[in-house]
Amino acid sequence: MIIIMHSHVTDEEIHGVETKLKSQGFEANVSRGIERTIIGAIGDERKLHKETLQALPGVEQVIRVVKPYKIVGRESHEADTVIDIKGTKLGGKTIQVIGGPCSVETQEQMDLAAQHVANAGCRLMRGGAFKPRTSPYAFQGKGVEGLKMFRQAADKYNLPIVTELMDVRQLEAFLEYGVEVIQIGARNMQNFDLLKEVGKIHTPVILKRGLCATLSEWLMSAEYIAAGGNHNIILCERGVRSFENAYRNMLDITAIPVLKKETHLPVIVDPSHAGGKAWLVPALSKAAIAAGADGLLVEMHPVPCEAWCDADQALAPDELKDLMGELRGIAQAVGRDL
Ligand code: PEP
Ligand code: MN
């Protein structure tokens, strides 16, 4: 950590900072320049609170030199993390498209959805049994019964399942039904107690970006999971709130290369919740793959206009199949396959 002192700093103030650093177990390296005095704090700066130094007399600015995220940062682990989901690899050369409905509705809907997901060439399936809805009067999901329907439908096609966990009390059922990937939704990105719980198990976790979370906040949430021992984390960009209201959320394509630089974790994109309209999904999906995403999370419903949730953004089965074909070309152009 580097501490920059005010231009008219006194010896007493410099001494005050040195004393504080020493009391915290740090070495202080004082460098007196013509204009400014700079103090370097030597030690594990993650254990040092920036605020306690910032508040000392004579201190102008405190700058961190190492990233606050220890485990998920590229600095600590250079190679890309590849997550093995029942033999399907996410984060490697092959791009994975996770397809399926917004929510689990009926056994028939899930059976048809699984058939179409497999037929389109996707190797993983999505579907929410517990739904985070803005209104308490809207359909809240089928709950445990939904997990059962999902399991039965997906097993017929050997598709690992991806489904959202909203509350730790649901975790037992998730483990009982062998959910292969747990999704932590945008609204729970900073539910730290929930993050700690999924950190204690080894099931892969898709951590969606919060509605207005910075990349640093998002990576710190991933760090919560990793700190508990679960390193199987996939980040999912799903658009952020912005001033624009012509579409649902603003897809942050820039986040993809930035995350790739900052972290070794796989990065996927959800074009459905970003655009909010089915017609926008192909363009956003192509942009995501071209920018370096490792996969996509796409909503598809056997009959979109009958979907109980997010009907506007669901692709029809044929549209998902066509999209997979188009994405194959983009993947090849960027040295990947699908
Ligand atoms: C979802 O994927 O079903 C979902 C609710 O997404 P988000 O948390 O990104 O809104
Ligand atoms: Mn949805």
Word description of this protein:
The protein is built from eleven helices and 14 strands. The radius of gyration is 23 Å and the shape is elongated. Helix 3 (about 105-120) packs parallel to helix 11 and helix 6 (about 190-200) packs across helix 7 (about 215-225). The two termini are about 45 Å apart. It has two domains: about 1-65, 2-Layer Sandwich (Alpha-Beta Plaits), CATH 3.30.70; about 75-335, Aldolase class I (TIM Barrel). Helices cover about 35% and strands about 20% of the residues. About 45% of the residues are buried. Strand 9 (about 160-165), helix 5 and strand 10 form a beta-alpha-beta unit. It has an eight-stranded parallel β-barrel, surrounded by five helices. Strands 2-3-1-4 form a four-stranded antiparallel sheet. A two-stranded antiparallel ribbon has the order 5-6. The mean pLDDT is about 95. It has about 350 residues and is of the alpha/beta class. Phosphoenolpyruvate (PEP) binds near residues 132 and 164. The site of manganese (II) ion has 5 residues, from loops.
Layout of strands and helices, then pairs:
Layout: E1 2-5, H1 11-23, E2 27-32, E3 37-42, H2 50-54, E4 59-63, E5 83-85, E6 88-90, E7 96-100, H3 107-120, E8 124-126, H4 144-155, E9 161-164, H5 171-176, E10 181-184, H6 192-199, E11 205-208, H7 215-227, E12 233-237, H8 255-262, E13 267-269, H9 271-275, H10 281-290, E14 295-299, H11 317-333
Parallel strand pairs: 7-8, 7-14, 8-9, 9-10, 10-11, 11-12, 12-13, 13-14
Antiparallel strand pairs: 1-3, 1-4, 2-3, 5-6
Helix pairs in contact: 3-4, 3-11, 6-7, 10-11
The chain binds phosphoenolpyruvate and manganese (II) ion.
